Amino acid sequence: MLPTDSKKALSFKRCIEDGDLVIVYERHDVMKPVKVTKDGVLQNRFGFYKHSDWIGKPLGAKVFSNKGKFVYLLAPTPELWTLVLSHRTQILYIADISFVVMYLEVVPGCVVLESGTGSGSLSTSLARAVAPTGHVYSFDFHEQRAVCAREDFEKTGVCSLVTVEVRDIQGQGFPEKLEGLADSVFLDLPQPWLAVPSAAKMLKEDGVLCSFSPCIEQVQRTCEVLRSDFIEIRTFEVLLRTYEVKEMKVETGAVIGENHDEKENGGQRPSKRKHVSNEDDYAVSHDNNSSTAATSVVMARPCSEARGHTGYLTFARLQCLS
Amino acid sequence: SNPRSLVSKLKIKTQKKTKKNCSLFLLLSRWSTVRIRLCRRIKNNNNKAQDPNPRFASEGCSVLLDVNDGDRLVFARLSSGAIFKIGNTNYSLKPLIGAPFGSLFQVETEKKVLSSLAFFPSKKERSSSVNVIDDDGRDNRELIDNNESQNLTVEEIEAMRREGAKGEEIIEALIANSSTFDKKFQLSQEKYKLKKQKKYAPKVLLRRPFARSICEAYFKKYPARIGFIRVDALSLLLTMANVTAYSDVLVVDMVGGLVTGAVAERLGGTGYVCSTYKGDSPSSVDMVRMFNFTDKIKERIVHSSINELSPPKTASPEVNNQQGGVCKSEINISESSASDMVEDASVTAEAREVDDVVPESKIIKAPQPGAKASKEAVEMWKENGFSSLIMAAQDQDPWILAKDVLPLLSYSAPFAIYHQYLQPLATCMHNLQQGKMAINLQITEPWLREYQVLPSRSHPHMQMSSFGGYVLSGIRISTTS
After folding, report:
1. Separation in Å, CA of B66 to nearest CA in chain A
2. Is B250 within 8 Å of chain A by CB?
3. Would the CB atoms of A103 and B205 count as touching at under 8 Å?
4. Is A314's CB within 8 Å of B453's CB?
5. What is the assigned CATH class of domain A6-76?
6. Residue A3: which pLDDT band, with cuts at 50, 70 and 90?
7. Cβ of B100 and A224 within 8 Å?
8. Mean pLDDT of B341-366
9. Is the predicted pLDDT of residue B230 greater than 80, yes or no?
10. Site from A216, A249, A321 to mutate, B interface, most B CB atoms within 10 angstroms
11. Is the CB of B385 inside 8 Å of chain A's CB atoms?
12. What are A182-208's pLDDT values in tens digits?
């Protein structure tokens, strides 16, 4: 997933090889990770696709099924991975992930501690941020989930950057061998205040801690405990609002709608335009035409469904000795 | 009576109170933590000049001074002669050189320097911020706002200051001489105390400039200069564009260099961030100087015009001019008279509170980043394409730029286009869909809200930023089937 000095992840020249992980894109909300094998076949509602047809094609290419419907083959990125990974636990999404990575001041070379690993959604993005010289130490008290996470990291190719250990951070704290080495610590635990003293020992001075909690009571207790060793304690909520875009042809009398939302059917064109026109020289274009012909207007409005809450993000810096 | 004797009488009173909190046990456990941290600091003292993650402020480096917990944010470049003004007094910044980032300083009036806050006093202050609320029924029903509750006059306070009374002593005197303080509800008392502390005993936090702090400081003070990109919008751009080591990121940065700097920070010295532009002259990326980048990182920040990066078009007059013309070898950053960076070249004449770092005669100039991209690099990009794109172009139509710049990306490369206004992005998205140039197109508006979390006082902040811009994201695909 991540580029290295010798191999570019993305390039006009980069072709799909046997063993690659690709993201099969049907629609923005229908995507799937697939490992390419010589004899593999992908079956979906459009028919079947032979992997052998894919090998040698560039990433981003369109590939066709036996019925002539197409899908796109995309290079995996942590964002796409977050949308397609199997959920063993509730995961963090792009809004929280991007804010956490920025606010924890994670840059290449950093050492980041994380608990719990969960489904590895954030871990993958942290791995990207610390590459190539940093490291992510991730802890989860559930053995099965730790195993699944390790498998996922192998699949996506970030296993050299992430170490998963089975450990109960609330009960035992972080391991002593990591004391004073962490640039940042991330906590996604039911009782993060129990882990705060240990996190304080792990952090370098002026290092940043983040705690993610869905409930305000958890946040209050965490902040109480943070006040002894940490400064600049700030709590945020981050959300995203998405918009849909539509083109309307506004004419005298009739209003024609052409829906340009994310409704692509594999292979089929968007719904055909229906003209209702009284003009002879009706020109179909997106630009504003002369006053006699129709004008088309592209309009945007927020989508009606949105996520209301994921969790509160509390950040704090380890106090510095003078 | 003499305010001084009153203060000393008060001191005895307060000491008796705090003794309850600082029991011997607490002191001992604190000392062991202190000892561990001191040893660790000696072990971790790896602040070589070219350390990409420096923990100590060095001479000539750029720092962010945070006065009174975020009330005031000022960028400065540290040197022995640098001066910083708080209120009406100038203070020397010399004690900050060599101090670890995150150290807290307070003013020392007599010496006109910022002296570092010793470990224990700062702990005492924090323990007074109570976790248990004393609900004894006090409220404000009898308090009259007639400006007569404080018995100390302005002259008496000034006299105390001149005699060298410490900030804490003045605050104690103010409390002692306030006829209404005891009647206040406990939380009101704390609020009063905090207000006086900010005025008479201001604290300065030494912070390291990072994409996050630079963006926040600018968003608070000069948001127009960064195109109103809020910190969560910036973080979204970096994530959506999959910025990581060894990637070649194309940026159209018309927000002073904030985006270029943030990308360079995440690249960490590998790959490239190429700032591109229409026409001949590159846009200024002045802000990059504030990040304290090592040379290794600065080398990766380059620029090249759209024409140079595009495959040659036969009948374009612009291309012919470009090939023959003289291109600037470096971005021309005009050093303004003030050596601090917040007050850059575009300083206006408007009246502003004077909170700049006064420059001394010998201005330390930072080496300028942003050299022109080498021919080899340009060839490599033409062959491979860029791995992602971030556009933050103020006052430009995003579609006009996107249609020229998107073909420079590899297939399956993600892109993120930021704009302050929704409509141009909607048109751009529509056109990209019509032209089948991209998939997974999405217009997103980031939303951010900060909370105050204190015992019995938890609620969102009263003020909030309602707007941080819009982002159009997508993935480039091949237009040929």
Report:
1. 11
2. no
3. no
4. yes
5. alpha beta
6. confident
7. no
8. 35
9. yes
10. A321
11. yes
12. 999 999 999 999 999 999 999 998 899
CB contact under 8 A, B455 and A108: no
Specify the pLDDT at position B341: 39
Q: Which B residues 167-226 touch A at CB under 8 Å?
A: 205, 208, 210-212
CA distance B180 to chain A (A): 29
Best of B32, B46, B246 to substitute, by most chain A Cβ atoms within 10 angstroms, is B246
pLDDT score of B124 more than 90: no
What are the backbone angles phi and psi of residue B477, rounded to the nearest 5°? -130, 170
Yes or no, beta carbons of B434 and A28 under 8 Å apart:
no
Between chains, do B458 and A216 touch, taking CB under 8 Å as contact?
Answer: yes
- Tell me the pLDDT band of B132, cut-offs 50, 70 and 90: low
Residue B50: pLDDT over 70: no
Q: Provide CATH 3.10.330.20 ranges for chain A.
A: 6-76
Q: Has domain A80-239+309-318 been given CATH number 3.30.450.40?
A: no
pTM for the model stands at 0.80
- Contacts by residues B339-348 (CB-CB < 8 Å, ≥ 24 positions apart): B339/B77, B339/B363, B339/B364, B340/B74, B340/B75, B340/B76, B340/B77, B341/B62, B341/B75, B341/B77, B341/B286, B341/B287, B341/B289, B341/B290, B342/B74, B342/B75, B342/B217, B342/B218, B342/B221, B342/B222, B344/B256, B344/B286, B345/B286, B346/B225
Residue ranges of the annotated binding site of A are 119-122, 140, 168, 188
Q: Using CB atoms, which residue from B239, B266, B478 is nearest to A107?
A: B266
Instruction: Of B106, B119, B110, give the one whose Cα is nearest residue B68.
Output: B106
Q: Is the peptide bond before B3 cis (omega within 30 degrees of 0)?
A: no
Stretch(es) of chain A classified as CATH 3.40.50.150: 80-239+309-318
Q: For the segment B246-275, what is each residue's pLDDT rounded down to a tens digit?
A: 999 999 999 999 999 999 999 999 999 999
- Number of A:B CB contacts under 8 A? 268
| Strand, helix or coil for residue A105 | coil
